[in-house]
Inverse folding.
């Protein structure tokens, strides 16, 4: 990866944190808002905001609506992590090396913090400068994060009767993990007036990148738990081969953007070598 790649990632992090901080500062002070801040500002990689900002850059765009998209998607991502860590889901005591939200604030506050973040994501987007494109972009974000997307994937994941085969793994990875990345590039593309061809290319990139991302996550997670994972179904060797295949497919998707898509290509290399 080049220094430009890391600079772009850091810049996306700074920008989204500025927006998030401004939104959080206006909230009333209580245990739930403390829990929201704790989870939102605790060292996430900010990959989804980076996908939003870098997509906008492909079209030479930036501005308030793009900031809102990046912040809203990071809120949805954070709510999903808070709820996923709860005892009734994955039951994780730690997140990003710190006590998970419910361990620090108790289960009731963690449930409400997640709920409030999802709601705040909607409020943030509804606060935007509306155009027909912006409306379609916001609708795409919520389509990708609900039962047709992230929640739908999680529903299959937690169902003990789900067949433990590759087809199921592929379905739930596309929904649970990739859909929010597809939302990031797709919504930004719509917002910036991208063509249908550009939208399809970016969303397909994010689908392949998201699958590679989940497979890399499974390789990093030595615990593996009870759920379904690439390593359990394919083994370590074939999981690595899959990641390489997804990276190639992802790279092909963004070819139409030529040199401008360097960030997207480097993101795939970053994923293959990441340690967290
Ligand atoms: C509870 C509705 C609901 C959904 C939960 C996203 C999710 C579905 C569960 C989280 C656990 C998990 C393994 C999700 C897959 C996606 C993933 C690898 C998330 C972690 O994303 P990163 O690495 O997180 O971008 P950071 O910490 O960098 O923000």
């Amino acid at each position: 990866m080049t220094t430009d790649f890391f600079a772009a990632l850091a810049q996306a992090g700074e920008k989204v944190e500025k927006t998030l901080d401004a939104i959080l500062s206006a909230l009333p002070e209580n245990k739930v808002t403390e829990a929201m801040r704790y989870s939102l500002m605790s060292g996430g990689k900010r990959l989804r905001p980076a996908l939003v900002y870098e997509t906008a850059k492909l079209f030479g765009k930036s501005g308030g609506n793009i900031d809102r998209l990046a912040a809203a998607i990071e809120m949805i991502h954070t709510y999903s992590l808070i709820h996923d860590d709860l005892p009734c889901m994955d039951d994780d005591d730690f997140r990003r090396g710190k006590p998970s939200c419910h361990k620090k604030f108790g289960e009731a506050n963690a449930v409400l913090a997640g709920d409030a973040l999802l709601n705040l994501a909607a409020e943030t987007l509804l606060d935007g400068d509306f155009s027909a494109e912006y409306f379609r972009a916001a609708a795409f974000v919520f389509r990708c994060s609900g039962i047709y997307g992230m929640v739908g994937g999680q529903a299959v994941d937690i169902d003990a009767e789900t067949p433990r085969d590759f087809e199921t793994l592929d379905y739930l990875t596309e929904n649970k993990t990739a859909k929010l990345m597809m939302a990031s590039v797709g919504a930004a593309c719509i917002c910036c007036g991208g063509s249908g061809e550009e939208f399809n290319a970016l969303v397909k990139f994010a689908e392949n990148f998201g699958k590679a991302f989940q497979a890399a996550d499974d390789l990093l997670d030595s615990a593996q738990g009870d759920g379904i994972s690439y390593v359990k179904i394919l083994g370590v060797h074939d999981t690595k081969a899959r990641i390489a295949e997804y990276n190639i497919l992802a790279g092909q998707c963004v070819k139409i953007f030529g040199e401008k898509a360097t960030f997207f290509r480097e993101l795939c290399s970053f994923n293959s070598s990441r340690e967290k």
